[in-house]
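Inputs:
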Amino acid sequence: MDYQFLSRTALFRGIQPEEIKTMLSCLTAERKSYEKGEMIYRAGDAAASLGVVLDGKVLIEHDDLWGNTTVLDSVLPGQIFAETYACTAGEPLMVNVEAAERSQILFLNVSRVLRSCTHACAFHGKLIRNLLALSAQKNLNLSRKIFYTASKSIRGRLTAYLSDQAVRSGSSSFTIPFNRQQLADYLNVDRSSLSAEIGKMQREGLLRVKKNLFEIMR
Amino acid sequence: MDYQFLSRTALFRGIQPEEIKTMLSCLTAERKSYEKGEMIYRAGDAAASLGVVLDGKVLIEHDDLWGNTTVLDSVLPGQIFAETYACTAGEPLMVNVEAAERSQILFLNVSRVLRSCTHACAFHGKLIRNLLALSAQKNLNLSRKIFYTASKSIRGRLTAYLSDQAVRSGSSSFTIPFNRQQLADYLNVDRSSLSAEIGKMQREGLLRVKKNLFEIMR
DNA sequence: TCCTTTTTGTTGTTTTGACAACAGATTTGT
DNA sequence: ACAAATCTGTTGTCAAAACAACAAAAAGGA
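Outputs:
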């Protein structure tokens, strides 16, 4: 097990590799391998353990009532998944978790993580605080998405998103981490309609766009 | 200060009133009063403290670019607010927090809550775990809303919402905690269009509705 | 009870955006 | 550099939903 690697993840940040080694046995962590396409969790499952991706890639997906699959998120090495479900005992997953390629996953039983540790584990508390920080961060990301999609018009969603990006970047010009299709998915609108709206706003002089570089005119 | 009351809140659950008293001084908690309409936090503020509503009522609001105010949530006695921001240092609030009536708020500085406590506070860890549970719970609520509004059609949103309610209630008939306007706001659609769609689905024999009681036909 | 207020359903009109199809641009691989 | 694949912008059509206005129903108060 690569404890050096783990100590650089958000979950184990601030905990020494030596200490992680001790903790993992204390927490009876399990490591498992998955082949490409294999299901790690299924919607409806009760996930008692959170997963840390050690290697490979994991997709969080949703199948709607008509069988269409949407990728909601991808989880890369060092990142975690299912922690929300693991932290709210009994809640069934709303999503499928699938290995996008051959992957190594470390599972941590959250009830053990949360159980206060009477003996050694001095860094146990640090782990929980890291988990809280991750949870709060995810919370903000979800809230943001809800904010951006609160408007019913494409323009409204786009301006909500773009003006927030401008504020966060501290400049009226900034690059976004999405291509058009991804931005359309994120804002929950049709790609071609989004492109059309961007074009219209440029013609109205509200925006200058070159690829992923946006500039808001005032 | 009513420590009995606090020990029944989700944040202090499992901590004895006596212990809470000790903790609050250790955490240098502050109590403040707000008049109706007074702003507790403003969008853009960096909230270092989470708020516990002791008495009164607090509204979480959003003002969009055109000045329209939307109420996102209301926080009642025993519940908390701004914890997400307090847990992610430096993130400015996306919302306004306003006293809906004369209110008493207890502020807890989260950096103190998170700082591991070398001395007395045996229940300090419990407080953090409660906070994590609250955060995970809020996370699920946000995720659910995103799920329900993932479809672009009113019918898609409504069926996503209703079928999940049916699953959670463990029955094909159940009551929902919203009136029509609130449900429309939650699903981010127009109320009258929602009513029309519900009517249509009833005529198609997919649904039976009486007030807030829904029955899904199969 | 009667009156008022709020909630809900209905309908017609108008706007918006999804969708489809395609062409030009850009990127990637060889 | 060339071909193939991917991404982006444009346009027209059409269905869906927003919006507005109103009537019916339900809830609440005096």
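Remarks. Helices of chain A lie at 3-7, 17-26, 83-87, 110-114, 124-148, 154-169, 180-187, 191-203. Residues 141 and 212 of chain A are 20 Å apart (CA to CA).
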